[in-house]
Amino acid sequence: MWLLVGGRAQGPQAESGPTPAAAPVTAAPAPAPPPALPETRAPVNAPRWAPEAERGAAPAAPSAPAAPGGAVSAADTFAAEARDSGWASDNEAEISRRLDALATGGATVEAVECRSRQCRILLSAPDEETLGALMTAVQGDRGLLGYAESVVLSRVDVAADGTQRTNVYAQFER
């Protein structure tokens, strides 16, 4: 191994032989800088939860009409969805089979309607406690857990006679 120090070669043969000539050094051209990327960071004062438009990103197009305040409800998404008859009828039968077994104490599954990626299930019960028990069971392993991708519960409506009804939306990845 040779080491060139101050024009003199240092190494195992440095004392007995001539100093080797230094080879000219040429620098390789610097690589071209990468192309500039568009600025996508949020402005410093925009919180992470700010709407996409405030963070500098283009907002995504909603899949259904927006409710007041810009939110898209499960009901709006369901209403905008087309029906896939084969998929819908198979899932209506399976959901009815699963949930009818859970309806006790006067609670009922009044209707099941599916579209192409989600199903609306109308539940009713004579009181809040019975409806709550059915809603909990619907979300459990004998209900829709492991079957539907997600379950969305909507508000409870109370009739004049005290009967309580709510829609549950089961959403599926296809």
Rg, alpha carbons: 34 Å
Please estimate the helix content: 10-25%
CATH class of the domain at 79-171: Alpha Beta
Q: How many runs of DSSP E, i.e. beta strands?
A: 6
The shape is: elongated
Q: What kind of sheet is the major sheet?
A: 4 strands, antiparallel
Specify the number of helices: 3
- The spatial strand order of the largest sheet comes to 3-4-6-5
Kindly report the average pLDDT value: 76
Q: H/E order of the elements?
A: EEHHEEHEE
Structural class by helix and strand composition: alpha+beta
Binned strand content: 15-25%
How would you describe the overall organization of this protein?
By secondary structure, the protein is α+β, with helices and mostly antiparallel strands. It has a domain at 79-171: General secretion pathway protein M, EpsM (Gyrase A, domain 2, 2-Layer Sandwich). It has three helices and six strands. It has helices at 74-80, 85-100, 128-138, and strands spanning 3-5, 8-10, 108-114, 118-125, 150-158, 164-171. The strands form two sheets. A four-stranded antiparallel beta sheet has the order 3-4-6-5, sandwiched between helices. Strand 5 and strand 6 form a beta hairpin. The protein is elongated and about 85 Å long. The two termini are 66 Å apart. Mean pLDDT is 76; it is low at 1-5 and 36-65.
